[in-house]
Structures are given as structure tokens and as C-alpha cells.
Amino acid sequence: MTTDRSTADLTAGLAFSAQELAAVRADFPLLARRVRDDRPLVYLDSGATSQKPRVVLDAEREFYEQHNAAVHRGAHQLAEEATEAFEGARASVASFLGSAADEVVFTKNGTEGLNLLAYAFSNAAAPGALDGTDPQWAERLRLGPGDEIVVTEMEHHANLVPWQELCRRTGATLRWIGVTDDGHLQDPEGVVGEATRVVALTHVSNVLGTLNDLGPDSPVIRAAQAVGALVFVDACQSAPHLDIRAITSAGSGVDALVFTGHKTLGPSGVGVLWARRGLLEAMPPFLTGGSMIEIVRMEGSTWAPPPAKFEAGVPMAAQAVGLAAALDYLTALGLDRVHAHDQALMRHTLQTLAQRPWVRVLGPSATADRVGAVSFVVDGVHPHDVGQILDDSGIAVRTGHHCAWPLHRRLRVPASTRASFGVYTTTEEIDQFAQALDRVPQIFGMEASA
After folding, report:
1. Backbone phi and psi for residue 287, each to the nearest 5 degrees, phi listed first
2. What does the pLDDT profile of the chain (450 residues) look like in tens digits?
3. Hey, which residues does 275 pair with through a beta bridge?
């Protein structure tokens, strides 16, 4: 394992003190749970879903108790209050992203946001779907045989299967940027080319924790811009840990981004699609019905401007309010400090696992190259067995392929065990995890030094 001394020096002064972290943990009621024969819960599965602070639970409850009504409908006071709360939540999300509110679309989750983007291309092929659209944007949404979509080998299925299906519907070809043995993206040269119309990739791998460089001078962004390809980013794993405003800033080279509420201290059932205003105006809608219309006649309909164009039906107002409370909570903690806390946890976890030679960590060895999660294998022991041993000690982790089968095949492992962090995770919990993990060689008769 390489040592990140400079990174450690930069982040050490920003990480939460013991007193601050204790105060943060007190905000999360579920962390007081005891499990498995009255053992204290050690929750290391935040990459799957995060726990929720009281301010989020209270915000959602308060909406239902005081303001519950269908937003954008009705002229009564409750409807007005509900609409104000919902649009206020949109403003909070926009502030978190450093974007305009009309570039924020509420979705069910990150998966729906990615499907919304993918279906825009196939829906664009319908007669009249792009009538009145800016010709430059319209041309970028037309997709067919000979065109290519590029993803990476480390994608979650949510950012792979929608593009596979889009290729099936349109005749386009799917290509992918490979992954190195140590969990970094390979050079996009030779993959991103003149036929590339879309590059869709994750900001942080949900398996490896790899933090992909998405700066405007990064190889993948430069390659996409050189051929005029649209760039879409899955930020589901980065949004809880990093300030992602650089991705949405002008000149970033990124055209759209998604993240999900339930991984970002917020409720389930709500996610976010952010996209450039011009792209949203050009994209045909994904779902149709009430709320997203402008004029309806029996002969046909016209659409409301974005973001309403993509929010058919009664929206998830209470969940949006809860998500806004979650993002405000993260912002109040300070996203630079949240990231510093994550880096301290990552450094401690990698150092701790390096002391156990029977554990093989997947992905980058440098702390600064990783965010949020550490996946590993114990050769000769199935990850499900590792997970069961940890669970018996009250340690909650994820086992399996983590919705990333192709990545596991690339790494030549059938599955892995993943420990993932939240703002409430402590180094003491990492130590408890390691102590429980030490039962694996004892139970399976392995040499601990092997």
C-alpha cells in the first residue's frame, strides 16, 4: 500500500474531532440499535443506503403533518404551502449543485434519471419529437446505426443496462473504457472516437471506491469534447462525500449528472437529474400525463418547459423536502470536512487491512484515489461467508457483485465484501470490523500470516 502523506497533511486539520463526530452520530437514531444478541450495530453499508438524521425524518414528517397536499394543484392554502415546500426543496438541491433551479429534475432515484436520459434518444426518433428544438441540440439527440455510446467497465448496472437497451432500440454500438488491475480507468484513446455520441461514466465506483478524474483537462473529458460527445455522470457514490459543484459548473464538459436521495442521508423514493438547460429543453419527455403538459387537446398535447416536462404526475413532495434537509445537513457540516473525514476513514481502513495479508483489497492502493468504500476478498472463502461472520458480530457490510457483474469478471473474482462509510462512521468502528474479520481465518482454519 502506498502512503499518502501529503493528502493526510491536507485533510488532517479538516476531519471531525471526536466531540464533533459524537454530535453527528447523535443525530442518527438508528445508530443506537443493538443487533445479533444485543451487540452494538456497526453500520458499514452506507454505499447501499445511508442512515438518516433526525432533521430529515422531522422534515418529512412535518410536511405530512402540516402541509400535505398535491403540489402545483389547487388554489387552497395547503396546496400553496405544499408547492412552496416542493419548489423550495428544488432550490436547495440547486444550491447543493451550484446550478439553476430550472436545471434540477426530481426523479424516483438515480436509476430513473439515467433511464430518462437514455430514453430521450430513442424518443427523439419519433416523428415530430424534435420539432421546434434548437437544431444543434436536435442533431446531438439523433442516434442510429454507426453511432457509438461509451461507458466504462466499472459501471453500476444502472449506468450500463439503460445504454445497452438504447443501443438495442436504435442500432447504435456500445463500447467501453477498460479498467486496470489496480482499479483505474484505462486511457480512452481508441475507445472514444468520431462516432461517439455519448460518454456515460461513474464519478466514484461503488465497488472499488475509485475516484475518477472528471476535471476539464482529464483524458475522458478531453476525448469527449474533441468529438462533441455528450457526457453524463453517475454521482450516486460521490454526492454523499464530495463537493460535486465543479462537475455542474460552466465549462466542466459535463452535460448531465444524477444522484439519489437514499445514499445521501435523504429519503428513499427521490433522486435528482441535473442537466444543462439547453439539453433539457431539447430532450423529449420520458413519462407523460398530468403536470408535465402545457396545452392538451384531443388531437394532441404540448409540453411544459423543463423541469416540469419531466415530472409527470403528483411528485414525491415529502421526499423532496426530506432530501433538501439532508443536503442542507451535509452543507452545514462542510463538504470539505465531510471529504476529509472520509479520507481519514479510508486511510485507517487500508492500513488496517494491509496488516492482514490474507485479505486482498480491490482497487487503488492510494487513499486519495478512493472515496467511500473498500471492497475485498479472502481467497478461499466466499464473500457471503465473510459477511455472515461479520453480521454475527453486529457488523453490517455488503456482499456479492454489488450490481457490477462485469467489473467483478474483469477483476477475476466472483464476488466481494464491501465496507462503506458515512459521515457518522468512526475509526473505532473500523477497528471493530477488523476484529470481527479476524474470526474468518480462525473459523476456516487458515494461517493468519498466509
Report:
1. -120, 145
2. 333 444 454 455 688 999 999 999 999 999 999 999 999 999 999 999 999 999 999 999 999 999 999 999 878 999 999 999 999 999 999 999 999 999 999 999 999 999 999 999 999 999 999 999 999 999 999 999 999 999 999 999 999 999 999 999 999 999 999 999 999 999 999 999 999 999 999 999 999 999 999 999 999 999 999 999 999 999 999 999 999 999 999 999 999 999 999 999 999 999 999 999 999 999 999 999 999 999 999 999 999 999 999 999 999 999 999 999 999 999 999 999 999 999 999 999 999 999 999 999 999 999 999 999 999 999 999 999 999 999 999 999 999 999 999 999 999 999 999 999 999 999 999 999 999 999 999 999 876 554
3. 256
Task: Compute the distance between CA of residue 96 and CA of residue 330 in angstroms, rounded to an integer.
Answer: 9
Residue of 403, 413, 443, 446 with catalytic role: 403
Contact status, residue 321 vs residue 63, Cβ threshold 8 Å: yes
Query: How far does Cα 441 stand from its chain's mean position?
Result: 34
Q: pTM above the 0.70 mark?
A: yes
Assigned architecture for domain 57-331: 3-Layer(aba) Sandwich (3.40)
Nearest of 252, 3, 317, 278 to residue 120 by alpha carbon? 278
The H or E element that residue 135 is part of is: helix 135-141
Could you give the residue range(s) of every CATH 3.40.640.10 domain in the chain? 57-331
The CATH number for 5-52+334-443, chosen from 3.90.1640.10, 1.10.3720.10, 3.90.1150.10, 3.40.50.1000, is 3.90.1150.10
Give CATH 3.90.1150.10 domain extents, the chain. 5-52+334-443
Assess contact for 63 and 57: CB atoms under 8 A: no
The verdict on whether 167 is a catalytic residue reads no
Q: Is 391 helix (H, G, I), strand (E, B) or coil?
A: helix
